[in-house]
Amino acid sequence: MLVRADIFIFYIVWITMAQLLAQEEKEKTTALKDLLSRIDLDELMKKDEPPLIFPKTLEEFEYTFNEHGQLRHTTTGDPFVFNYKEDLHRWNQKRYEALGEVIFTFAVFLTTAFCTILIVDATEDEPKSFIYLSEDALTNADKLLVLIQGSGVVRVGQWARRLIINEDLNSGTQIPFINRAMKEGYGVIVLNPNENFLEVEKVPEAEQSAPDTSDEPAEKRERKEEREGKKKKDFYEKYRNPQKERETERIPIRENSSPEEHTLYVWDHFISKSLAENIFVVAHSYGGLSFVELLIQREDEVKSHVSAVAMTDSVHNVWHQEANRSIQEWLKERCCNWVSSSEPLDTPVDPMLPDCLRLSAGTERHELTSWKSFHSIFKFFDKHLEQQMEDDVAEEEPSTTVTTRGSNRAKHEDL
């Protein structure tokens, strides 16, 4: 009986100690949460952050592109350094983005192409964008090359900003495609599918609809202004941030508010008006999806004008985009998709969907697929050109035979 009493007492003590430990742990957790709640983490991160004001030119950034198209520091010759200031990731990221914008304006391929206003009937105050066309883009009766980039921050003439900054211009831009195409007698149109809106500074609501206080008593108005001033001061003291980013709003560009809309618009107003007998398309990543959407919207036109399509790691999906069977069959015949893969370049890759032939781009890096498959793409186009010429000859021969026979028959009847 005594043994049982001892066990019972031990059990009570054990439970009590467990409860005390749990209560102590809970109190520690509560104290830690209370401490963290008093710390303004954003304020700590921004405490030593320099202003978010960056150079507007490459020279001011102290960078330039060398003879190999690589971005290098003008003094040290070193590649671009992302962590310019340690432990300030946000500031470094903003600096990187600012450099990306500068590189966009450093459009060296303008020596081989010129730009045109995108909205053909734009008013003076209307948001507008532009695309690049070679001088013979719409008049070249032989060949036309159309370039469609992927989604994101990349702009007209770019495949990947990361490659431009960290690798070179050849891998990150469409310059090699433009130069080779023009050398081989193509006209060129370069799309700009990611410039879909004009970003303007947002007008504060207080300025938009400020109440009329002209009839208020002066004393009341002064007290009100004093309260507002104190409120603003308190707000500033709590969240002071000398490089606070301005609030902006986006005004969409008419009929170009998405990559798909943009591709359709450029087709209707430019590509379809080209005199080229053979139109070829290079579409990277989301650009492939935009092209398939165009094919769905303008099936007959695209099929009758486009000779072949080279995609690079395209993200299109004929099932999700509800492409019909005839479109799927056309893609099988006219399309090749060079995908990221560890296999050697041009090695067949198992098809995931019943559409394009899939070949390895010889790299596992998505953004490099266009550059790695560069030579293969032009060989692919040449092959389709040769096939087109053979088909044209084959179509002409029977008609000549029929004409000759008809002519002989007419002569025979005359006799």
Automatic annotation (TrEMBL):
Q: Where are the transmembrane segments?
A: 98-120
Q: Which UniProt keywords apply?
A: Membrane, Signal, Transmembrane, Transmembrane helix
**Lineage of producing organism:** Eukaryota, Metazoa, Chordata, Craniata, Vertebrata
Report what the protein is called.
Arb2 domain-containing protein
In which residue ranges is the amino acid composition biased (Acidic residues)? 389-398
Any Pfam family matching the protein: Arb2
Q: Name one GO molecular function term.
A: siRNA binding
Extent of Basic and acidic residues compositional bias: 217-249
Q: Which residues form a coiled coil?
A: none
What GO CC annotations are associated with the protein?
A: nucleus
Gene (name only): FAM172A
Region Disordered, residue ranges:
203-249, 389-415
Question: Record's InterPro entries?
Answer: AB_hydrolase_fold, Arb2, Arb2_dom
Signal sequence extent: 1-18
Cite the Arb2 domain residue spans from the record: 54-345
Q: Which GO terms describe its biological process?
A: regulatory ncRNA-mediated heterochromatin formation
